[in-house]
């Protein structure tokens, strides 16, 4: 097993990629489906329990959706490795890369929104202005996610990473 010590050499634009190990394939193939299962379970609970839909329930729902998409993206390299003994860098990987970039961005954005909302509830417990703030959370989070995803798509920075996952590949614009 080789380790990606210095993946990008700016002098010569040479890229070195780590080998995909059986342990990685096993962890991607087992842990990602377990996380998908818990994401789906939480979304089912969200749909059935009205208490979970109270503010800021929609922020938590979008964070769960983003996490589910990320987990599905983590499953692909593990299953692809077991089936074909390599990680494909074709259109499926590029699509997973773009969806992963979008999902990472919305997960981070909604986590920040959730922290801000908790701070608001602690500092102003009787404030009922969440409905006005939630549109700002959604617009800002999805707007930034669209910009990040388009930026990666336009620069062609998506594909297999040094860690053998579909995300930002090893280019001057990527990792």
What does this structure look like?
The protein has 175 residues and is mainly alpha-helical. The protein has one domain (21-168). The protein is 65% helix and 6% strand. The chain is built from 4 helices and 4 strands, in the order E-E-H-H-H-H-E-E. It has helices at residues 22-48, 57-84, 91-123, 130-155, and strands at residues 8-9, 14-15, 158-160, 166-168. A two-stranded antiparallel sheet has the order 1-2. A two-stranded antiparallel sheet has the order 3-4. Strand 1 and strand 2 (14-15) form a beta hairpin. Helix 1 (22-48) runs antiparallel to helix 2 and helix 3 (91-123) runs antiparallel to helix 4 (130-155). The longest helix is centred in the middle third of the chain and has 33 residues, at 91-123. The relative contact order is 0.16. The model is unreliable at 1-16 (pLDDT under 50).
